[in-house]
Design brief:
Blueprint: E1 2-4, H1 13-27, H2 40-53, H3 61-89, H4 93-98, E2 103-105, E3 120-124, E4 130-134, E5 142-148, E6 156-158, E7 161-163, E8 171-177, E9 180-183, E10 191-200, E11 203-204, E12 211-214
Antiparallel strand pairs: 1-2, 3-4, 4-9, 5-8, 5-10, 6-7, 10-11, 10-12
Length: 216
């Protein structure tokens, strides 16, 4: 679905007037837009007024104000007409272009599941503390860490749920893992292993490899 892109600016009044006159030309006799909210003669007159007053934009205070008023009026008419185009075109790119307007996408590309986490650095720093640094895949919204102090077993994933098998022992979950973080409480274990997952709106990535280290 697309809508009108605001390509004009009050800072470029002559270009704005040119854009307005172009829409008048393209919308004249256009069966997609039979009753525009801004009558085409009104749009044409407003554009002509900006063009006519442009040479006096730095004149007397009255001339300056008249020019500013003409620019603001034309800008308002263009925005009003753009809303009409959006309504009548119903997001159809071809129809928007046919009226002399520039389309722009309004819907984002659908998210896709990211690649798996390829790099996970584990650094024991003493006292049962483990520093974790992950390389986030492109498109990753958050990281999910599964920590094993016993045998590494595969988790069951159903939709967005991680299910720990009944026979698993020594499994801990960090649901909102950060790219760089410290994990504590490992002083009673000789070895720790971590598997990481990348999560975004599309779902859960495949698991990373198993990254292991000895605790200091």
């Amino acid at each position: 679905m697309e809508e009108v892109k605001i390509t004009w600016s009050k800072d470029e009044p002559l270009e704005m007037a040119s854009q307005a006159k172009h829409t008048v030309t393209e919308m004249t006799g256009n069966s997609n837009y039979t009753s525009p909210d801004v009558p085409l003669p009104d749009m044409d007159d407003a554009a002509d007024l900006v063009i006519a007053k442009y040479p006096t934009r730095n004149g007397t205070e009255l001339q300056k104000q008249a020019f500013k008023d003409a620019v603001v009026d034309l800008d308002d008419l263009l925005h009003k007409q753009a809303r009409y185009i959006n309504e009548k075109s119903e997001g159809d790119r071809t129809k928007i272009i046919s009226g002399g307007w520039t389309p722009t996408a309004t819907t984002r590309s659908r998210s896709v599941i990211t690649d798996k986490v390829e790099v996970l650095k584990l650094k024991p720093i003493g006292g049962g503390v483990l520093k974790v640094n992950a390389k986030k895949p492109i498109g990753c919204d958050k990281l999910f860490y599964v920590i094993y102090t016993g045998e590494v077993v595969d988790l069951i994933i159903r939709g967005t749920q991680f299910i720990i098998p009944d026979n698993a022992r020594g499994v801990q979950i960090v649901a909102n893992g950060r790219q760089s973080m410290r994990l504590t409480g490992f002083s009673d274990f000789a070895k720790v292993s971590i598997v990481a997952y990348s999560i975004n709106a599309a779902g859960i990535s495949p698991p990373s490899g198993v990254f292991s280290t000895k605790i200091l």
